[in-house]
Amino acid sequence: MTDAPSRRDLIIASLSAAGFASLGLPEEAVAQGVELPATPACDAQAAATPRQTEGPYFTPSSPQRSDLREDGAGELLVLSGFVLTRQCRPIPGALLDFWQADPSGQYDNRGFRFRGHLFADAQGRYQFITRAPGLYPGRTRHLHVKLRGGAQSPVLTTQLYFPDEPGNRRDGLFDSRLLMKLRPAEGGQLGRFDFVLAG
Ligand SMILES: [Fe+2]
């Protein structure tokens, strides 16, 4: 497969530019079909996304990027959704800052592996691609995220969880309102989560 590097670059470029990939390499197939509708479907008074503890491993000033993949193994996860107000209005340009353990369950506390921030588009939609985090002692699998609707808005710090994880029932922080919707795709999983900001 001599054209792999250029195709990969093209895919990453198309993910960055348009948010969607349309090429069919097995590794990238998960990135297909993540297209969100132009407007969200939700009630006029949605419940705000619950806050959760930041935990010990947040690092400020993460790089801006929507692709947290690193070289190496690990199941791909493409997560997308809306950032909304409680009145179901999209929040264009909302900031999302993600951090997570790597596929072996380690946090990078010296650098920025599996850390990055991105901004929702003009319709309040976001999409990022990563590798699913591994387990680390004492917790069920999760992603961390901080969100902000605008420069003057309060920060929401929370965590997202994986459905059907044996560790969810044993995890004292687990909250079923923070479960991603996941569906398998060739090469990994497609995830969906819509955030609702209170302030
Ligand atoms: Fe964590």
TrEMBL record:
Assigned keywords, A-Z: Dioxygenase, Oxidoreductase
PROSITE patterns named among the record's database cross-references: TAT
Keyword Oxidoreductase: yes
Region Disordered: start-end pairs: 42-67
Domain Intradiol ring-cleavage dioxygenases intervals: 54-167
UniProt xrefs under Gene3D superfamilies: Aromatic compound dioxygenase (2.60.130.10)
Coiled-coil intervals: none
Gene Ontology MF terms: dioxygenase activity
SUPFAM superfamilies assigned: Aromatic compound dioxygenase (SSF49482)
Pfam families (UniProt xref): Dioxygenase_C
PANTHER family: DIOXYGENASE (PTHR33711:SF11), DIOXYGENASE, PUTATIVE (AFU_ORTHOLOGUE AFUA_2G02910)-RELATED (PTHR33711)
Protein family per UniProt: Belongs to the intradiol ring-cleavage dioxygenase family.
Protein name: Intradiol ring-cleavage dioxygenase
Protein source organism: Bosea rubneri
